[in-house]
Amino acid sequence: MPKRLRLTRRFPVAMTEDGYRALRKFSQEAGLDEGEALSFLFENFASVMDRENLTHRLRLFNAELEARKA
């Protein structure tokens, strides 16, 4: 049986409820825990994202960020 990834870094993360729900859904579908799912996404970031879509979504997120904090 293959060994699970050894997670060596821990850091406090603040996430929106929507973001955390999406992370939990992704991790459950992939058979990973949340930390493993985040590691997978960041290790494979360039191959799992669409640059044009990312740029557009990031602009929208930043535009709404202050309102979300209130």
Task: Set out the fold topology.
Blueprint: H1 17-30, H2 34-43, H3 45-48, H4 51-69
Helix pairs in contact: 1-2
Summed up:
This protein is mainly α and 70 residues long.
Question: Can you give a write-up of this model?
Answer:
α1 crosses α2. The chain starts with 16 loop residues before the first helix and ends with a helix. The protein has 70 residues and is mainly alpha-helical. Helix content is 67%, strand content 0%. It is built from 4 helices and no strands. The model has no long low-confidence stretch (mean pLDDT 88). The protein has a domain at 32-69.
What characteristics describe this protein?
globular; 70 residues; mainly alpha
Number of helical elements: 4
| Count of individual beta strands | 0
How is the main sheet built?
Answer: none
Percent range for β-strand residues: under 5%
**Alpha carbon gyration radius:** 14 Å
Reading the helices and strands in chain order gives HHHH
Structural class: mainly alpha
Note the gap between the termini: 48 Å
Mean pLDDT: 88
Helix coverage percent of residues? 55-70%
Shape: globular
Low-confidence stretches: none
